[in-house]
Design brief:
Helix 9 crosses helix 11 (375-382). The strands form 4 sheets. Strands 1-6-7-11-10 form a 5-stranded mixed sheet, covered by helices on one side. It has a 4-stranded mixed sheet with strand order 4-3-2-12. By secondary structure, it is of the alpha+beta class. The chain has 12 helices and 14 strands. It is flat, with a radius of gyration of 22 Å.
Length: 420
C-alpha cells in the first residue's frame, strides 16, 4: 500500500445475530403499541439465549399488550428471521426456535415523573446525538459500512430464497477500504464474512469439524462478488482471493483478501451460541465508526426518546446538506436536557469539504432556519408515531430507502438559501 493511503474498516451483522434478534423483538413490541396507540410510551429491552427470551421494560400504552400478545410477537419475529426446525434433531442443534423458545414478560408502566416533562413537549431524556453523511456512495453513507450492510442483507436474501440452502440466519460481515490521502476511496482491500451453516458443508479432519473450502468459494462467487460490483465496480481492482484459516495465499497488489468463516466452523450460532441483548450494536446501527456516536441505542424506544428521534433528524440534516452539495461530508450534533424542548446546541463539522463561501457556522444558521428540532417538531417532520421501526432493526438504520429520515426534500431549499 502506498504511504499516502490509509485503511478504514466497518462491520455489520445479520438479522439472525443474537443482538439483532433482540433488537427486532423490541421494535416489534414498539410497532404493536404504536399501531394501536400512536402516543404509546415505550422503552422495551429484550434478552435472548438458548430457548429463552425475556422481554422487559417500561411501557405505557392503550394497546392490548398482554403476555399472550408479547409471546405471539416474539414467536413471529423468530419465525420471520428463520430460526425454525423441521424435526427434534434440528431443533436441538439450532437451540433457539420459534416453537420451542420460552418467553418471559417483565413489562411495567413508565415512570410518571418522566411524563411531567414529556407531555408538554420536552425531550424524553438527556444526551447528545450525531448524524453523518458523505458523498462516497449513492446512499450518502460511508463506503465500508454501506458494503458491510449490503453483504448481510444479500446473505438474508440468498438464505430466504433458498439459493444457498445451507446458510443459517446468524452472520457477520466486515469490509476494509483503502483510501487516498484526500479521503476518496481507492479500492476495496479486505472482506470478512462469517456465516452460520448446516452440517451439509462440514467435513472432518483429524476428528475435528471444518467448514469446506468449496463452501467458502461459493460465498465469494455468489454472495460477496455481486455485492462489491453492484455500486462501485471501479473499486474491485483485483481478484477475490480466499484466505484459508491459518493460511497466507499469494496475493497480487490489488487483490481482495476474503476471510470466510476464519475460525474454521460456525455450526452453533444465534442466541444458542451467544446471548443477545437490545442495543449492543450501536455502531453497526449507525455509521460503522466513521461518524461519532452519542452512546444511546435506538431499538425499543418510542420517538419521544431523543436517543432515537434526534439521531434520525441529525442524519436527515446531514444528508440534505450533502445532497445540496454544500459539503462533501457533514457531521451534525444536537444535545438535549430531559423535559426541555429545544436543543442545547447545534454543531456542524464538514471536515474542510464545504462548498466555496459555505462555513460550518453558516450551516448551523441554515439548520436553525429550515429544521424543527424540538421533539414535537422532529416527530411531526418525520411522521414518527407510526409502526415503522421493526425494519430498522436489521441491516442498519441509515442508508436505506423507505425511512423518512433518508429523504432529501430540503436539499434544494438549503442550496438556494446558501446562495450556491
Amino acid at each position: 500500500m502506498s504511504a499516502d493511503r490509509y485503511l478504514f474498516t466497518s462491520e455489520s451483522v445479520s438479522m439472525g445475530h443474537p443482538d439483532k434478534v433482540a433488537d427486532q423483538i423490541s421494535d416489534a413490541v414498539l410497532d404493536f403499541c404504536l399501531s394501536h396507540d400512536p402516543k404509546s410510551r415505550v422503552a422495551c429491552e429484550t434478552l435472548v439465549t438458548t430457548d429463552h427470551c425475556t422481554v422487559a421494560g417500561e411501557i405505557t400504552t392503550k394497546a392490548p399488550l398482554t403476555r399472550k400478545a408479547v409471546d405471539a410477537l416474539v414467536r413471529q419475529v423468530v419465525t420471520d428471521i428463520g430460526y425454525v426446525a423441521k424435526d427434534d434433531a434440528e431443533r436441538e442443534e439450532i437451540g433457539f426456535t420459534a416453537d420451542a423458545v420460552q418467553v418471559n414478560c417483565l413489562i411495567h408502566a413508565q415512570s410518571p415523573h418522566i411524563s411531567q416533562g414529556v407531555d408538554v413537549g420536552g425531550a424524553g431524556d438527556q444526551g447528545m446525538m450525531f448524524g453523518f453523511a458523505c458523498d462516497e456512495t449513492p446512499t450518502l453513507m460511508p463506503l465500508p459500512i454501506d458494503l458491510a450492510h449490503r453483504l448481510v442483507a444479500f446473505h438474508a436474501k440468498l438464505r430466504s430464497e433458498g439459493k444457498i440452502a445451507w446458510l443459517r440466519p446468524d452472520a457477520k460481515s466486515q469490509v476494509t477500504v483503502e483510501y487516498n490521502a484526500d479521503g476518496t476511496p481507492h479500492r476495496i482491500h479486505t472482506v470478512v464474512l462469517s456465516t452460520q451453516h448446516t452440517r451439509a458443508v462440514m467435513t472432518s479432519r483429524g476428528g475435528e469439524d471444518y467448514f469446506t473450502d468449496e463452501a467458502r468459494q461459493q460465498i465469494i462467487k455468489d454472495l460477496i462478488l455481486p455485492v462489491l460490483k453492484a455500486d462501485r465496480p471501479d473499486l474491485v481492482k483485483g481478484e477475490l482471493v480466499m484466505v484459508p484459516p491459518g493460511g497466507s495465499p499469494k496475493m497480487g497488489p490489488n487483490d481482495i483478501a476474503c476471510h470466510i468463516n476464519p475460525t474454521g466452523c460456525f455450526l452453533t450460532g444465534g442466541p444458542h451460541g451467544d446471548c443477545g441483548l437490545t442495543g449492543r450494536k450501536i455502531i453497526v446501527d449507525t455509521y460503522g465508526g466513521r461518524g461519532r456516536h452519542g452512546g444511546g441505542a435506538f431499538s425499543g424506544k418510542d420517538p419521544t426518546k431523543v436517543d432515537r428521534s434526534a439521531a434520525y433528524v441529525c442524519r436527515y440534516i446531514a444528508k440534505n446538506i450533502v445532497a445540496a452539495k454544500l459539503a462533501r461530508e457533514c457531521e451534525v450534533q444536537l444535545s438535549y436536557a430531559i423535559g426541555y424542548p429545544d436543543p442545547l446546541n447545534i454543531w456542524v463539522n464538514t471536515n474542510k469539504t464545504s462548498a466555496p463561501g459555505v462555513t460550518d457556522e453558516k450551516l448551523v444558521a441554515l439548520i436553525r432556519e429550515h429544521f424543527k428540532l424540538t421533539p414535537k417538531g422532529i416527530i411531526e417532520t418525520l411522521d414518527l408515531r407510526r409502526p415503522i421501526y421493526r425494519p430498522t432493526a436489521a441491516h442498519g438504520h441509515f442508508g436505506r430507502d423507505g425511512f423518512p429520515w433518508e429523504k432529501t426534500d430540503k436539499a434544494e431549499a438549503l442550496r438556494k438559501a446558501a446562495g450556491v
